[in-house]
Amino acid sequence: MSLDKNTVAKIAKLARIRVPEEELEPLAGELNTIIGFVEQLGEVDTDGVEPMTSAIEHEMFQRDDVVSDGGYPDRVLANSEHANMGFFTVPKVVE
Amino acid sequence: MTYMIKGNTGDWEVVMGLEIHAQVSSNAKLFSGAATTFGADPNEQVSLVDAAMPGMLPVVNKECVRQGVRTGLAMGCEINLKSVFARKNYFYADLPQGYQISQFEEPIVKRGKVTIDLEDGSTKEIGVERLHLEQDAGKSIHDQHPTQSYIDLNRSGVCLMEIVSDPDMRSPEEAAAYVSKIRSIVRCIGSCDGNMAEGSMRADVNVSVRKPGDEYGTRCEIKNLNSLRFMKQAIEFEAKRQVQILEEGGSIDQETRLFDTAKGITRSMRSKEDAHDYRYFPDPDLLPVILEQAWVDELAADLPELPDVKKNRFISDFGLPAYDAGVLTAETENSAYYEQAVDAGGDPKLTANWVISELFGRLNKADMSITDSPVTPENLGQLVGLIKDDTISGKIAKDVFDDMFSTGKMAKDIVEEKGLKQITDTGAIEAIIDDLIANNPGQVEQYRGGNEKLIGWFVGQTMKASQGKANPGVVNKILKEKLAG
Amino acid sequence: MTKLTGLTIAQAREGLKNKEFSAVELATEYNAAVEAARPLNAFITETPEKALEMAKASDDRIAKGEAGIMEGIPLGIKDLFCTEDVLTTAASHILDGFKPQYESTVTTNLWKSGATMLGKLNLDQFAMGSANITSFYGDVINPWKREGDNTDLVPGGSSGGSSAAVAAHAVAAATGTDTGGSIRQPAALTGTVGIKPTYGRCSRWGIVAFASSLDQAGPMTRDVRDASIMLEAMAGYDPKDATSVNVPVPNYEASLENGVKGLRIGIPKEYRVDGMPAEIEKLWQQGIEWLKAAGAEIVDVSLPHTKYALPAYYIVAPAEASSNLSRYDGVRYGLRVCDEGDSLDDMYEKTRAAGFGDEVKRRVMIGAYVLSAGYYDAYYLKAQKVRTRIAEDFNNAWKSCDVLLTPSTPSAAFAKGENSDPLSMYLNDVFTVTANLAGLPGISVPAGLDSNGLPLGLQLVGKPFDEETVLRTAFALEQAAGFEAKPQFMAG
Ligand SMILES: [Mg+2]
Ligand SMILES: [Zn+2]
To answer: What ipTM is given for this predicted complex?
Structure first.
C-alpha cells in the first residue's frame, strides 16, 4: 500500500492539520517511507493471536458515584484567552 | 392497518430504526467526579478531565456500569461480561478531547427485545441490537453572538446509554410507542429519569422508504429528537420527502438531518456534511470492564417488577382490558397510585376507569403530575368504595370528585357535609312518588294508556325532587309498581 | 569544600541530614548551575525563586526531623509533567502560555518526599524524537563532545534536556518519560542512569500524553543508587489513573547491595543486529563478563519477534498519539490561529498546522492513517497482535532467566544531521522499544566510552514489577564498570 497525494490531503483533513498544496507530495514521500517500514509486520504469523491493548492485566478500578470534582469554572477557563460570560468561544458554527 | 405513504406510483412502506440516548441517573459523570444536575451555570460542573486538560485521565464510574447492566437486563438483553471502551475520533466544538469515549466492537449489552403497545390494544416486538455506555458532548450556543458560538461543557462527559434498535418500526406511531416503552422501562428501574424536555432522553431516527417487499432503501438519520410529537412530525415529513425524490427518479443521499421544529421540515446538517471516519480504537487510558456473572444475576434478581410483567398481572389479576393495563403501567407512579387506590376501595375495574378518565383528565388539564395530585390514592379508593356500596351514585360521585380535586378533602367528608348520600329508604322515595302521581294525573293516564316511554319523565322528576340523591334502581322499581296501578 | 552540585542524591541527603549545609545553600548553588548550563539549552523554564522557596520549607522540615526521602534535593522536571501555575509546554508551540491548574501525580509525590524544583526541562516536542531536535524551544546540546572535536552532539531524546542537565550537574536528578526509549536512550548518550519502570508503576496523571499504553515516567540520575531512591519517591498507586497498578512500592535502595550471585542473566541473541558497531558488541561482551564475575549465571535466550518491535511501535504509538493530540485544538488553552471570517475547521487546521512541529505532524498523520477505515485491521490491529507475540517472547524468556542484558543503543551520541532522516532516527530505539511494548522495566547504565571518548550504556530489562532485581543488577554492573568519566561541559 502506498499513500498518494490525495490520500495525504484526506488524512490531513481528518487530522485537522492544514498542509499547503505544494507540501503534499514531499509529505507523501516521507509518510510512505514510514509505511513501507512498518509493512514488514505482514511477515508475522498472528493467526488466532489476541491483540494486546494494554500491558497490564489487572482489573480496572471503578470510582464511586460521588461528586468530588468540578465547581471551579475559573480554573477551567483560566487558560483560555477567548472565554466570554463563562463560556469558551469559537467561530460561529452553522449546524 | 398498515401505515403507508401514498405516492403517485403506489404505496410506500416506511422503515425506521432508532438510537435512543438516555442519560444515566448518576450523581457524577461517566469518567469524572463532576456533577450531572441540570441547569447549572456555564462550565460550573466541569472537571479538568471533562475539559480535556493535558494529561487528564478517565476513571469509570461504577454506578454507570451498574445502571447500563440493569437497563440491559430490563430489556431482556445479553450482558457482555467483558466490554471495552473505545475512542470515537472527530473534531467538534463541543467535544473537548477530540474524541468521544464510547463502546464500539464490544458493548456492555447486546441483543434483546422490547414489546411495544399500540393504540388499538395490539403489541409488537422490536429488536434491540445493543446498549453501550458513552460520554455526552458539551453544548454549543449559537444565538448569543453574531460571529461566535459559545461552548458550555457542563454536559461534557455525562453518561449516556445509547440503545440501538433493529429497523423494526413501520409507522410514526410505532416509533413513538417504542420510545415510550424504553422510557417506561428506564424510569421503572430508575436508570434514567426519562425527561425529554431537559434532554435526558433523545432519539435519533433512521428513516428509509421502500415499496413493500423490496430491499431496505437508503436511510437518513434525523438527529436529536426530544419530543414524541416532533418525532412523529419529522418522520412523516422525511418519509414523504424521500418518496417524492424517489418518484421523481432521484436517489437518497445517506446523511444526517436536523428537524426544524418551527418549519416542520428536516434539513441536511451542514456541520456533519463531510463523511466521517471515526477511527475507533480501544481507549488505551482504560482497561476492559470485566463483570462477574454472579453480580449480574444479583442485579437481575433485584430488578423491580417491569412494566410488561405488571401489565400482564393487571390484565389477569384485575381483569383490565389490555389498553387500560398498558396505560396504567406505562409509568411506575401511575401503577403505584392505581394499586393503592384499589387497595383502599376495591373494584379494580371501576378504579381503573376513575384513574384513567377522571383523574388523568383533571391532572392533564391542570398540568399536574400524578405525584402532585390533590386527590390521594386512598381518597380515590374511598370514593370508589362509596359508589360501590351505593352510598352515592356515579353521577354524584363526579361532583364529589371535583370537590376532592379542588379542596383535597376526603370523599366521605364531602358526602357527609353536603348530605349527598343516596336515598335508599323506600319510605321516603315512595312519598315523593305518591306526590308525583297525585299531582300529574294526565301523565299517569298516558303512561297507563300504553306510552311506556314516559317512565323516563317520572324518573327524572323523582330524581329532581330528591336532589339527585334517590337511588335510581329503587326509584325505577317503585315507579313501575305504583304506575301499574 | 567540594562543590555541592558534585554530590549525588544520596550524598547530598547525608550532608543535609548532618547539617553540613542547608537545602537553601544547595538550591542556591544549583540555581547558579542552571544559569551556567544555558549554553546547553536544557531548560525551557527556570524557576529559581521556587527552588529557594521549596528549599526553605525543606530546611524547616529537616529542623523538625520530618525530612522525606528526597528532602531538599533539587530536581529538573521534564516539561511534559504538568506543574501547577508553572508554564508547561511539551516543547510545543501549541501549548503557548499554558499554566496548568494542577500538579501531576509524579511531581506531587516528589514534592511530598521533599524534593525541590529548579525548572522545566527541554525535550523533543510531545516526547516525539530521539535526539532532542524537535523542540519548539530549540535543540538541546549534549555536554559531551568527541575527543578533539568541537562538533555539538545530541543528548538523545526525548528526555534530552533531562539527560544533558543531569550529565552536566545542572540538577541533582531529573524526571523523564519513556514511550519507546526516551529515558534509557538519552541516559546512554550522556553517561547517566535512567530507568523506565513497569507500565503502571508510576501514575500517568498530569503527564502530557504521547502514547497512553506505552508512556511511563522514571528517574534520570547520576548513579543507580540515586535512581533507586528517586523511583521509590515517584512510584505508587494512583486511583486517578485507571492503568496504575495497586502493588506496594519496595525500598529499592535497601536491596541494592545484595549482589547478583545465582541470578540468571538472559542474553537475547536477536539483539545482535546487523551493522552493530564492534564497540557496542565488545561492551556487551564486557558486561556479560562483569556479571559472570559477580556470580551471575549467563543464559542464552531467544526473543524471536524483536525485529518487529520497532515497526509495531511506529504503528501503535502514532495511532494513540493522533488521538491524544486531538485536544490541542485552540479552544480551551494554548495557541489559537484564527483570522477574521474563519470557520471552526479553518481555526483547527491553522492552529494545528502552526502549533505542531514537522515530526509531530508526521506522526499524527501516520496515526490517523493506520486507524482509518479500511486500514485498521492491516495496521493497528496487526501491530497489537504482534505486540502480543513480543510479550509472549518475554514470558518465555522468564522461564530461563531473571533479567536480560542488552546494549542500550546502537551507537554513541551523534551530531544533528548525521543520521536524522526520520527512519534512521527511529532506529535509535531498536533495543529499548521492546520493553515499552511489553510494559517491562528497563534501565540504562553507563558502562564505558567509545573510541571517541563518548559514553555507551548497557540495558537491563526485568520482569513486571521487578524493578528491584533490575536495580540490583544495575548496581553490580555499575560497580564493575566503575564509570567515572565526565563530560567536557560541566555546569556545576
Ligand atoms: Mg449513534
Ligand atoms: Zn451515541
So the answer is: 0.97
